[in-house]
Specification:
The structure is a homodimer of 280-residue chains.
Chain A (H helix, E strand, L loop, with lengths): L1 E3 L2 H13 L4 E6 L5 H13 L2 E6 L19 H11 L3 E3 L3 H4 L6 E5 L6 H5 L3 H16 L3 E5 L3 H13 L5 E5 L19 H6 L2 H14 L5 H13 L5 E9 L14 E9 L2 E8 L1
Parallel strand pairs in A: 1-4, 2-3, 2-6, 3-4, 6-7
Antiparallel strand pairs in A: 8-9, 9-10
Helix pairs in contact in A: 6-7, 9-10
């Protein structure tokens, strides 16, 4: 695996592979890799001639009060994991190379980013779509892989790609979970033992929603109430939001719509904000 | 010359040429072509294996009170002119293909767009950078050609390309003028005979600035006053702005800086708003 630090160098490599008629699979990450990331890497490997992974903790998607500085990092371990997967190129740029002095250009998706994570984190998605635009221009992938855990991110990026005519296929892959059901996340590292135990509440509430829908309940308010009850049984967790939206436009739904429903929630477990979701 | 209407088709053609290792020169236009546009086309032809021109009157760069509906169009004549220049592909999309229902993604350059044209036309550059991003993703050029007449546009696009890592070289070419000095513009068509005569005031005022600088004047305020006097001698023209800025950041200058000065102005000649400029 070759590690590339300079955007222009990564772009030259991408150009070469495109000229050779090879397909490029790309997995953008913020590092501190877990099995969720690795599932994306495996899929990229399987379906493309060459696999690029980026590790970049992107400052523009963190608000000043958020966890940019303490975001977990372990580049040696990440390198090792990516080598083991047979990744061809790791793009690992510095903040200065990605955001040089005088940086002032942003990509924004408007409507889809007003709700859910965007309502709780108003500048977050502008940072995401800006850095993903940059990464796409640098790595020129045929396919890029994102986890469904960041459901809104996936939907927003698909819209951006469609609207700006990026020549890349966006592939969304299932959430990977710990044995008790907790969705894998680099932020799980922040949890102490008790918090880690109670963090399962997000999954439990989604399981409840799934059960209710399987049994025929389609009223969104009823489902959300039951989810809320589950979480309130725990000591530490505090709900930020529980929401049921259309997948197409992220509009709040009153009734579950088959193949067009996203049930999502954000919960503070201690100081750590966790998210999880279910696609119906 | 082949005419392509569909973005995905244009993109496939661009991919083919890139795979064949051919360089693509691209000239984005709003049509109603004049010698200014054709100078860009000639330069693109000269330095690239294949030349793409787009004609698209981009609605997102016009404010509701501006001249989108009456913007001059003559596609037959444009086609003829481009054929004569030996253009390989004309990309001529519909508004519906470029901005389908649910379109909501925009590219914005922040600081550089707050002044000059951006101050007079607050949503203009967001429309420009958005459509140019789309066009770059669709046509995948190695080099793209813009006129210096839209000086701020050229500077803003260069910043966007640099900030978002677009893999394209931006080439800026000199203003092409009528025999009396009026800068070529599709909007000159709006002028009646008397207005057309008086429209030369923009050039005359820039000539005066040039003379003063050549003779050693470097005080921006003095130069602007003299430019103002020239224009005020005419009957119809009304000044929107006369400004002297750095080329690097478009900051207002008190003193002329060699190789870093843009003298620019916008003037209403009747209902028609004309712009012109001088790079020092």
């Amino acid at each position: 695996m070759r590690i590339v630090y300079e955007p222009y160098e990564m772009q030259e490599i991408a150009n070469k592979y495109r000229e050779w008629g090879k397909t490029i699979g790309f997995v953008p990450t913020m590092g501190y890799l877990h099995k969720g990331h690795l599932s994306l890497v495996k899929e990229a490997k399987k379906n493309n001639d060459v696999t690029f992974v980026s590790i970049f903790v992107n400052p523009t998607q963190f608000a000043p009060n958020e966890d940019l500085d303490k975001y977990p990092r372990d580049i040696e371990r990440d390198e090792e994991l990516l080598k083991r997967e047979g990744v061809d190129f790791l793009f690992y740029p510095t903040v200065e190379n990605m955001y040089p002095d005088g940086f002032q250009t942003y990509v924004s998706v408007e409507n889809l980013t007003q709700v859910l994570e965007g309502a709780s984190r108003p500048t977050h998605f502008r940072g995401v779509t800006t850095v993903v635009s940059k990464l796409f221009n640098i790595t020129k992938p045929h396919r890029a892989y994102f986890g469904k855990k960041d459901a809104q991110q996936l939907i927003v990026i698909k819209k951006m790609v469609e609207n700006l005519n990026f020549d890349v296929e966006i592939v969304g892959l299932p959430i990977v979970r710990e044995s008790d059901g907790l969705a894998m996340s680099s932020r799980n590292k922040y949890l102490n033992k008790k918090e880690r135990e109670e963090a399962v509440c997000l999954y439990k509430s989604l399981q409840k929603a799934k059960e209710m829908i399987d049994k025929g309940t389609d009223d969104a308010e009823t489902i959300k109430q039951e989810m809320r009850k589950i979480i309130e049984k725990y000591e530490i967790p505090k709900i930020d939001y529980i929401s049921i939206n259309s997948l197409s436009e992220l509009k709040e739904l009153k009734k579950i719509e088959k193949d067009n429903t996203l049930i999502s929630l954000a919960v503070f477990v201690g100081k750590t904000r966790l998210i999880d979701n279910l696609w119906i």
